[in-house]
Amino acid sequence: MTWTNVIVQGVLFGGFYALFACGLSLLFGVMRIINLAHGDIAVVAGYTAVFLVPHLHIAEVWGFIVVVPIFALVGYVLQRTVLQAALDRSPFTTLLVTFGLSVLIENLLLEIYTANGQSVNIGSLIGNSWQVNSTIYVSWFELVVLIVAVAVLGILQLYLSKTSTGRLIRAVSDDREAAQICGANYRHIFGIAAAIAVATVALAGISYGILTELTPTTGGSQVLLYAFEAVVIGGIGSLWGTLIGGILLGVAQQVGAHYNPAYQVLAGHVLFLAILALRPQGLFGKKEALT
Amino acid sequence: MSLLQLQGVSKRFGQVVVADGVSLQLEAGDAVGIVGPNGAGKTTLFSMIAGDVRVDAGEILFKGRSITRAAVATRCRAGIGRTYQIPQPFEHLSVFENALVAVHQGARVHGREGSERALDALVRTGLIDLANRPAGALGLLHRKRLELARALATGPELLLLDEIAGGLTDLEVVELTEVIRSLRADGVTIVWIEHVVRALLSTVDRLVCLAGGELVADGAPREVLNSEAVRRVYMGGAIINEAVS
Question: Which chain A residues are Cβ-neighbours of B52 within 8 angstroms?
């Protein structure tokens, strides 16, 4: 039964990775932007929940209702200003610009809030768990995050395939020049995609801050790396692939940790490298996405 | 008031002059063909009218208003539709969705009426049976038709067709020409760049020849083709012989 527990814990943690990864996947899929500041934006969202929400007289567990819309707006503005300007020059420039953003954010956080870890405090709720049997515990909060991740990805999938704006996002991602000639302002559509991406990563950042603690460098050293691995394992351009990628990464890490806690991170990287070597387009990706 | 007016439009890319003081006037309901050797600036002329390329000098007026500095999307919504020489469908969208995006964004029509307009564009261009096919799976003829369907779906008053018959078989050209003539009959103004001169002659009643970024001839198609200027541009070459034969 211990193995069952290992898998269950891995799946639960996979929800975090999927939530972190879906915005990264969307930004790359639609705009071909590799956002190196993705993890840092998650951390800023977490810090916003830590330092802003207590002033708002609402229970901290509901803080995301305020923070996530703020970050959707941040995402839109970021895209329409800095990222679009970089994109107008070259895709390579976006890489440099987002790297610059990452450095800027991490150092600003260090300067203002020091290197101490910060947590979003939701009180006793975080401790709740269900004991399924003698060896399996399911953390209430981790389960909620997994459900949220599945819901977010499902809603996003529906949004992209069924709604008029979602269809437009797919059209712009196929050919932005042709979209313009059809009367679409592709810059606005890019802004909407960035708003969604940044909102989802903000949700992930807050959740992460609730479960464990955030430091100014958590985003660059952990979140970004795991999100990348989840996207690559699942396959670029497939939202459900991202979910599976996140879950597989979580399971691999738990399996590694089961043998030796020092192997936790290593096992995830090994899975990532194995996928990259054997199936570079990812489990659910299409080969064309690589070109 | 003219539908479209170009006033001394100039454009150069580095040392290459692609438009040198081009002035052109189109009335609503016109059907104008544009010929000229490769590199004459034909496609760039379209790009300047549609807004993909900004002019260095000169003015472009559409329905009496200056659109010289307007965005591509704005010009589309104002009533300028364009097809690309190399079709650029939204490959991961279905044929119907391609047309629907154009109706929603270009014509600003939504809901049931929007869907009907998209279907209508597909019916007119003979794509209705392929409506649910992903556009990326289409062959060249159908891609060209989809370019036309999508431009049509934006509800254009002026339609810019860039070598839409290029690369097609004779029969396919005839079919496509019929579609274009039917659009003309509905009052859509047409400007058509084409090397397949016979297709052009069956449709247009005015022909313009561009060479080296300049208008070298403008008038009735046969007269233009027989003019000294055009003969010089083509050095008496294939285009004339094909048209005359």
Answer: 177, 180-181
